[in-house]
Amino acid sequence: PAPNGSSHHLSSIVRKKLMGYVGFANLPNQVHRKSIRKGFQFTCMVVGESGLGKSTLINTLFNTTLYPARPSPDPAVERPKTVAIESISADIEESTVRLRLTVVDTPGFGDFVNNDESWKPIVENIEARFDAYLEQENRVNRQKMVDNRVHACLYFIQPTGHALKQIDIEFMRRLHTKVNLIPIIAKADTLTDEEVQNFKRRVLADIEHHNIRIFQAPVYENEDEETLAEHEAITTKIPFAVVGSNSELELEDGRVIRGRSYPWGVVEVDNEEHCDFVKLRQMLIRTHMEELREHTNNVLYENYRSDKLLGMGVTQDHSVFREVNPAAKTAEERTLHEAKLSKMEAEMKMVFQQKVQEKEAKLKQSEEELYARHREMKEALEKQRAELEDKKRRLESGRPLTPEKASQTKKKGFLRT
Ligand code: GDP
């Protein structure tokens, strides 16, 4: 079964050549050296209505045609009625740093007449990936942990210039505790600079109003000024207004750039004056990939894990609570907390027991092996002894010994004089 537990999950892995510098070679500077040899796993999810430029942006980000051009849907073929989850993995290498990049696409999101539950299969997929990781953690042999958890979710907002739509708010509200949300204003070249600024303000206001937590890179103490400035330059751009393009254009001044050409001019993807693509890539790949991975592991996954245990405790103890005085809230909370603790303890015990059992099985096996070896050796010795006895008997009863042999035998104490 697919490690993420999703039934309608398509997955393929390809080896990809990069067309230019991408920037994840900086990862070893973001983390401890030992990870270099193992390589890195990074999973990025893209969500947004179709046609917002998701595949184009992923290809632009990693400078590779990870995403093949999707054929436009054939109207004669009936389209599925639910959001699908598809993933593509690529092993890419830059300056000897290996990255297993997985992009999880969610085709169908927001494309139906009724999109009320569009978020649901996505939450389920993210949780299935958490479960798969949890299951590995509980295994005794944790040498080869595969991390298929989603480390970042690029959420594409339609460049309407107005405000967030209900589907955007619903999605982010449902997902913000499960995944690092990175909101993106798609196809920013369709808005003027002023429209982009106003739209950003409104989007941020909506996000705040609904208490949605988007990914915030942590600021550490004693950070040097340069890093702080870089951090500030990135965070003030959120939500990133991006333009994607996979075609190279030659400008009149001879420069070759990635961009989109219009009658009124050219929008350059890699030009910070034109859009926030560079800052998005900076955060996602060059400076904060490790933060995204860490936050996923230490906060999002950890919360999921303990909530899951707490959930088990609550449902189990519910009948008890209903009978007690509802005013005894603190007592109830304490009981809940204790239930959570004992659940965790039980889980730990289970893992421990499992480990002990495996260890015991191993010991037993080596014990049996030892016995077998012992038996073999004993038999061999027995046989040798019988042979020696036999020889001795023949010597004693029969032929006289040569003086040399006699002295040898004497030394060994076989011959009484
Ligand atoms: P997806 O369905 O979200 O994966 O969207 P695609 O990446 O397939 O892009 C849909 C269409 O939008 C294509 O014709 C792209 O060329 C175009 N497109 C992609 N990115 C941009 C962008 O930043 N600006 C504009 N104006 N068009 C874009």
From TrEMBL:
Show the ranges annotated as biased composition (Basic and acidic residues). 384-397
* Pfam families assigned: Septin
Q: What is one term from the GO cellular component aspect held by the record?
A: cell cortex
- Boundaries of each Septin-type G domain copy? 38-311
List, in alphabetical order, the Gene Ontology terms for molecular function in this entry: GTP binding
- Which keywords belong to this entry? GTP-binding, Nucleotide-binding
Q: Where is this region: Disordered?
A: 384-417
- Please verify whether the record's keywords include Nucleotide-binding: yes
Which stretches are tagged as biased composition: Basic residues?
A: 408-417
Q: Which family does it belong to?
A: Belongs to the TRAFAC class TrmE-Era-EngA-EngB-Septin-like GTPase superfamily. Septin GTPase family.
Q: How is this protein named in the record?
A: Septin-type G domain-containing protein
Instruction: Give the source species.
Output: Tulasnella calospora MUT 4182
